[in-house]
Write a structure and sequence with these properties.
This protein has about 160 residues and is α/β, with parallel strands linked by helices. About 30% of the residues lie in helices and about 30% in strands. The termini are close together. Bound molecules: flavin mononucleotide (FMN).
């Protein structure tokens, strides 16, 4: 099974978690590739009118893990636009994760995951599971290892 980890990361937290999930999956003998969604300019100044630079394709993968930061108590608009505009996900197994700053997941984390889930299901992807990790300056919250185990254990 070929797994794609497709993420948007503005300041590196989501990328760091993606890399750790990738290491866990590779240890289990799976083929994994991490691809970043990037924008042409500062995404914080784009509102909902996102100009993309790199738009990873879903086609090469049997399973995809999508990762995004929480912005404004919801899904970051870059991931929202990417998932809205992307092609079909029929037959693909999907996992989702978000990173955020505020430790309480009911302040945006669950909302962002539920938005991602709806967008993925609208493309006929099958969501197997999800995880949320809060991130302070000193690093990720303690549940990070559990989230990595849970997500990598889905495949
Ligand atoms: C514009 C903006 C809005 C944000 N809004 C929230 C928020 O509502 N709740 C939260 O917990 N963190 C919020 N954050 C913090 C990010 O979600 C958090 O730092 C995340 O880990 C960043 O991921 P990245 O380093 O991959 O870009 C916000 C950050 C930015 C830049």
């Amino acid at each position: 099974m070929k797994i794609g980890i497709i993420i948007f990361s503005n300041t590196g937290n989501t990328l760091s978690l993606a890399e750790r999930i990738g290491v866990a999956l590779k240890k289990g003998g799976l083929t994994v590739r991490t691809e970043q969604i990037t924008t042409d300019g500062d995404p914080q100044k784009m509102g909902d009118n996102i100009k993309f630079k790199n738009i990873p394709k879903a086609d090469p993968y049997d399973a995809i893990i999508f990762g995004s930061p929480v912005w404004a108590f919801s899904l970051c608009p870059v991931m929202k636009e990417y998932l809205s505009e992307m092609g079909p996900l029929k037959g693909k197994k999907i996992a989702l994760f978000t990173t955020k700053m505020i430790p309480f997941h009911w302040m945006g984390g669950y909302n962002a995951i539920s938005k991602m889930k709806k967008l993925v299901e609208a493309k006929n992807g099958k969501v197997l599971g999800s995880g949320i990790v809060a991130w302070k300056k000193k690093g990720p919250a303690k549940n990070v290892d559990e989230v990595i185990d849970n997500i990598s254990g889905l495949f």
